[in-house]
Amino acid sequence: MSRQKIAAGNWKMNTSIEEGLSLAKALISKEQAGDNIVIIAPPFTHLHALGKLLQEGSSIKLAAQNCGYEVKGAYTGEVSVDMLKPLGVEYVIVGHSERRQLFGETYVDVSKKINQVVAAGMNVIFCCGETKEMRESKQHMGFVRRQLESNLFHLFEDEMSKIVIAYEPIWAIGTGLTASPEQAQEMHQNIRSWVADQYGESVAAQVSILYGGSVKPGNAKQLFSKADVDGGLVGGASLKADDFAQIIAAL
Ligand code: PGA
Fold first, then answer.
1. Residues near 17 by Cβ (< 8 Å), separated by ≥ 6?
2. Residue 213 and residue 179: Cα distance in Å, rounded?
3. Known catalytic residue: 96?
4. Which pTM value belongs to this model?
5. What is the DSSP string of 211-238?
6. How far is the CA of 241 from the centre of ligand 1 (A)?
């Protein structure tokens, strides 16, 4: 089996339920048959309705943008993996830089969430990526490597089949600045070789590594043409059905 090509749309804190339903319907109407995986990550409030809609006849998969690190109990405001799974959620985005930076998620929080998702038999979209200052001072490789070591490399080899890695340089998220295809490829190749050092070549060859950060119809094809770029985690451009459909087609 070769590794999967994936286009994942992270809607973040956007869309009303009506807007979310019509965006999903528009995507369903543009769906093409094929082996590529298309994922949408709407707000929590939309998951139930969208899960039902997708189950009625679409191969688009559902993701949550976050999850709690405990299964149940006195955790006001949190949503657990056990609540998400029955809604048809198959993926959970964990470790997004907005969660880490704006909501103070620590390495320990991120690891606990990853463990919950894996234990529930769901898939993780694990985000990593450096700041502008780190890249300028050439610390980006070491930093991303440490993120993988801190958050992923405690997993057992068989659990790695549940992991999708998204490299999202923070300076490229929502800024209109995109890593060049060469910059993306350089980091993705390193990520794959660190996974190979830890788990062996065959695990590394199977893991999908997505690029995220201002992916648009105009740059998707070039980014995805790189050997180690297996697709994209898309924010802003996933909110327009036409744009996201073009990005999917670029896979
Ligand atoms: P962007 O967001 O495509 O709007 O830059 C990407 C992300 O944060 O996943």
1. 45, 46, 49
2. 7
3. yes
4. 0.97
5. EESS--HHHHHHHHTSTT--EEEESGGG
6. 15
User: Are the C-beta atoms of 122 and 83 separated by less than 8 Å?
Assistant: no
**If residue 128 lies in a helix (H) or strand (E), which one and from where to where?**
strand 123-128
**In ligand 1, which atom is closest to the CA atom of 98?**
8
How far is 7 from 248, CA to CA, in rounded Å?
Answer: 6
For Cα atoms 98, 127, 5, give the angle at the middle one, nearest 5 degrees. Answer: 130
CB 192 within 8 A of CB 207: yes
- pLDDT score recorded for residue 176: 87
> Can 201 be counted among the known catalytic residues?
no
pLDDT in tens, 191-224: 999 999 999 999 999 999 999 999 999 999 999 9
| Residue of 46, 105, 168, 188 marked catalytic | 168
Instruction: State in Å: Cα 9 to ligand 1 middle.
Output: 9
Token output for 90 = 């198959």
Q: What is the DSSP letter of 152?
A: T
Q: What is the pLDDT of residue 106?
A: 97
Q: What confidence tens digit (pLDDT) does each residue in 133-147 have?
A: 999 999 999 999 999
Is the model's pLDDT at 2 over the cut of 80?
A: no
Tokens at 246, concatenated:
């073009």
pLDDT band at residue 1 using 50, 70 and 90 as cut-offs: low
